[in-house]
Amino acid sequence: MELRKQPGKRPGKLAYLLSVAGLYGSLLLAVTQGWKTAVLSLTAAAATFHAIEYLAIVTHYAWRRQTHGSRGAFRRMAQHWSVAFAAYIVFFGIAAYAADLVNPEIWLGINLWAAALHYAFDGMIWKLRSPPTARALGVESPSPHARPEAADSGDGLPKSAKRVRRKTASRVN
Question: Which domain covers residue 115, as residue numbers?
Answer without folding.
Answer: 80-127
